[in-house]
Amino acid sequence: MKITNVKARTVFIPIEAPLRHSYGSPNGFVRSIIEIETDEDITGLGETFGWITDASLATIRDLIIGEDPFNLEKIRVQISQRGYLSRQPLLLAPIEFACYDIQGKAIGKPVYQLLGGKVRERVPLSAYLFYRYPDASGEGEVTTPEQMVAHTKDLVQKYGFSALKLKGGVFDPEHEFQTIVALRDQFGPEYKLRFDPNAIWAPSTAIRIGEKLRHYDLEYYEDPAWGLNAMANVRSRVAMPLATNMSVIEFEQLGPAVAMGAIDVILSDPWYYGGLLHTKYLDMMCKTFGLAVGMHSGTEFGVGLTAMLHVASTMPNLVHAIDSHYHHMVDDIIEGGKLQYKDGCMAPRDEPGFGVSLDEDKMNKYEELFKKRQQAADWWYPPDPQRPKWFPIVPSW
Ligand code: MG
Questions:
Q1: Residue 207 sits in the same domain as residue 176
Q2: Which of 118, 296, 328, 362 is catalytic?
Q3: Burial class of 67 by CB neighbour count within 10 A (0 to 12, 13 to 18, 19+)
Q4: How many Å lie between the centroid of ligand 1 and the Cα of residue 120?
């Protein structure tokens, strides 16, 4: 089998209400869908961050066209080892996903079986809780601790989540601490509660607030401060598991993180680490070093989330519910509509490959929305209107 073509389409899907976090306030998510075609009429799907476009693929098109999609190690090396600045994980990962989708379709097996087989039937997901602005009809604002509790109750009732993650880094740390207090007050110890200020606090703030948070049984404290030195400092002072998807985002950073005693939970990411197979390797390496594993979310659509579910179902050391922004989205670009939650979990499909296909009407609709959206200079992350010129200075608080 040979790869005959590779293409990318970038799409924008609106969300229920504008989310607030330290990078800005998006009212929708942008992703790129990758398709790889072969000479056996099998097409594979991948997905990646929205700044990888058809033009980005031009740099690697000649490397993979004519290649056998089963030759993944060769494809990986050709894309990611072409120079010291060209690791290109966000380009490599969707190519790898699409090749696995092709492999599964070619041999009639789901991708999870190509990755070693399932160790769990269902993959738990967390409720990703954001402070939000109201939507166009004036509904959906989440600012106060009381509003966050009401919003979370809705999500728990609707989707069955038992892991709750609050995204902070928006308000004064005391306000965000009070939100955790209110959430814990409402949701007892049967609910896992995690908190992520997006690495914008000074280590001293992270220690001070961490000392208070310690009494609220957090599953973990995610990226309270920026960098391995600060994380090691916080971890040495606050008796709570620390997680990261910001200080460790590639294999090379694992060694220093372990040597410095900076992290308890590595939040894996099939994009950052260059694909599904390397996410499996990460799981094994974390086990070796006595670290637990979770999974970061970068606003995946149905193809990307499906890829996450396939690999997550095969990772023995993945002990924390995976993160996902999915419940904020109003629609998806896969056939059959949005993936469904059951008791806060999802399962990979059993059809060959990933088991998902594109809804071309939705692709066209949301590609058009992206083109309109792209005309704005701040299309990637619109600034938060209540602090338009704000940017995180480390330390911010
Ligand atoms: Mg994070």
A1: yes
A2: 296
A3: middle
A4: 24
Say whether both 182 and 284 belong to one domain: yes
Distance 165 CA to ligand 1 centre (A): 10
What is each CA distance from 14 to 147, 190, 246, in whole angstroms? 22, 32, 26
Beta strands 242-244 and 192-196, pairing class:
unpaired
* 211 and 302, same domain (yes or no): yes
Give residue 287 CA to ligand 1 midpoint distance, Å.
21
Give pTM, 2 decimals.
0.96
Which H or E run includes 30? strand 28-38
What does the block give as tokens for 217?
A: 């049984």
Where would I find the H helices in the chain?
54-57, 61-64, 72-80, 89-107, 111-114, 145-159, 173-186, 203-213, 228-237, 254-260, 276-288, 302-312, 360-373
Catalytic, 167? Answer yes
* Shared-domain flag, residues 146 and 268: yes
CA of 246 to the centre of ligand 1 (A): 7
Q: Are residues 194 and 251 in the same domain?
A: yes
Tokens 């700044």, residue?
A: 51
**Catalytic annotation, pick one of 118, 165, 167, 320:** 167
296 catalytically annotated? yes
Domain hosting 127: range is: 114-346
Residue tagged 């308890």 (tokens): 264
pLDDT per 10-residue tile (average), the chain, 397 residues: 97 96 92 98 96 87 96 94 79 97 98 98 98 94 98 98 97 96 98 96 96 97 96 98 97 97 98 97 98 98 98 98 98 98 98 98 97 86 84 60
- Domain shared by 209 and 280, yes or no: yes
Note whether residue 352 is domain-resident: no
Same domain as 365, residue 233 = no
Distance between Cα 223 and ligand 1 center (Å): 6
